[in-house]
Amino acid sequence: MNRHVTEEYSPRSVSNLENWDVGPLKLKVYSIRAKEQFLTDQMVEDAYNFAKSDVPSRVAVAGDDNGLGFAIIHPGDVGISILIHWWIQGSVLCQHIRRTLWGADAPMDTDARPVVACVWELGLINAEQVIWRDTMMSHAPDPMAYLDTRATIKEV
After folding, report:
1. Looking at residue 2, what is its pLDDT?
2. Is residue 154 part of a domain?
């Protein structure tokens, strides 16, 4: 029997955090917060450690990276998601994600459950792809402009 779960859309706040250097990547970092959740220093540290330990080898395997990307730390209603994105081949977005339910001992298996993103994360991902197009997909790509240009949305 299929169980269909729906929820009511409620905007979530978006915050800009510092940039990270993670192996070969320079990442812009954002947070998205569900209404009753808070972003802690420990969540940010865990996200950074996840990016630093898990992402560089994936970047190397994908190859052709542009050395740039963004991260999203999302304390949501049912758990926390950490999404690391990086650009390859000039126009392709790669992702590595870790989703952990609140109270769980281990992250969810993203191979068995290949989540891309939730509706709130997709709003921020879309804003970032527009920034990528505007700063990097022209006759004069500008990596510093990409890193300096942040999504201006306050809620998704």
Report:
1. 61
2. no
What is the distance between the alpha carbons of residues 4 and 52, in angstroms, rounded to a whole number? 36
Cα separation, 96 vs 110, whole angstroms: 9
pLDDT value, residue 156: 77
Whether 56 maps to a domain, the answer reads yes
Residue 32 contacts residue 72 (beta carbons within 8 Å): yes
Query: Is 113 or 118 the better-scoring residue by pLDDT?
Result: 118
Task: Please say if the pLDDT value at position 143 is more than 60.
Answer: yes
Q: Which residues make beta-bridge pairs with 73?
A: 31, 82
What per-residue confidence (pLDDT) applies to 113? 77
In 3D, which of 38, 36, 31, 85 has the Cα closest to residue 62?
Answer: 85
Work out the average pLDDT over 31-52: 96
Q: Which two tokens stand for residue 139?
A: 């006759």
Query: What is the number of structural domains in the chain?
Result: 1
Expressed in angstroms, the distance from the first to the final Cα of the chain is 32
Q: Which domain holds residue 50?
A: 13-148
Q: Two tokens at 1?
A: 């029997």
Q: What is the pLDDT of residue 7?
A: 77
- Whether residue 95 lies inside any domain: the answer is yes
Asked whether the beta carbons of 148 and 8 are under 8 A apart, the reply is: no
Kindly state whether residue 79 falls inside one of the protein's structural domains: yes
